[in-house]
Amino acid sequence: QVQLKESGPGLVQPSQTLSLTCTVSGFSLTSYSVHWVRQHSGKSLEWMGRMWSDGDTSYNSAFTSRLSISRDTSKSQVFLKMNSLQTEDTGTYYCARKNFDYWGQGVMVTVSS
Amino acid sequence: DVVMTQTPVSLSVAIGQPASISCKSSQSLVGTSGKTYLNWLLQRPGQSPKRLIYLVSKLDSGIPDRFSGSGSETDFTLKISRVEADDLGVYYCLQGTHFPNTFGAGTKLELK
């Protein structure tokens, strides 16, 4: 069955780089795109960017200068890297499939020294 | 960016009673294909969001027909005909027609 699972460090220091991995199963990254979505605690959802099935990427302009999304199709993994982290980047990060029909469990990230 | 405005912010409903949530977009969500990419999601407490409805009114697999979606252009509604305990959580509308994808602020459904 279709599954997505985020992984990464729970704690990142301010000004450092966040690296998250979304590992998928039950579908191919060359057939379906994968989104990254962020949720501040108790707040709404914010679309960050997308890895398209052809390997292209799209980014929310709110993150463009510091966000990078890549993938390893052989490992069925999509990666998120975001630099210059600030406390405002604290939240839960989700990956979701193409039309948001499947979501990962999310990974909580705290930015703090 | 397209702004998605949801009302009400919160809703207290008794079991067995109906519920209705509105979502209004700042631009028409009709895409160049003629399709309207408006989804409804439910985030239960402590869980990740789950899609309930896509393309305005199509129910995802396993979603009971107590749920229904309607609307067009900029005005959309999610209705629950008879609320059950399992329905509590925060409901979000999400548009996928215009770049970037944007979400409503959420409507919290509580049981009365």
Account of the protein in words:
- The complex is a heterodimer of chains A (113) and B (112).
- Chain A is an all-beta fold and 113 residues long.
- Chain A is 0% helix and 49% strand.
- Chain A has a six-stranded mixed β-sheet with strand order 2-10-9-4-5-6, with no helix packed on it. In chain A, strands 1-3-8-7 form a four-stranded antiparallel β-sheet, with no helix packed on it.
- In chain A, a hairpin with a 5-residue loop joins strand 4 and strand 5 (45-51).
- The termini of chain A are far apart.
- The mean pLDDT of chain A is 95.
- Chain B is an all-beta fold.
- Chain B is built from no helices and eleven strands.
- Chain B has strands at 4-7, 10-13, 19-25, 38-43, 50-54, 58-59, 67-72, 75-80, 89-95, 102-103, 107-111.
- In chain B, the strands form two sheets. In chain B, strands 2, 4, 5, 6, 9, 10 and 11 form a seven-stranded mixed β-sheet that branches. Chain B has a four-stranded antiparallel β-sheet with strand order 1-3-8-7, with no helix packed on it.
Brief account:
Chain A is mainly β and 113 residues long. Helix content of chain A is 0%, strand content 49%. Chain B is globular and about 40 Å long.
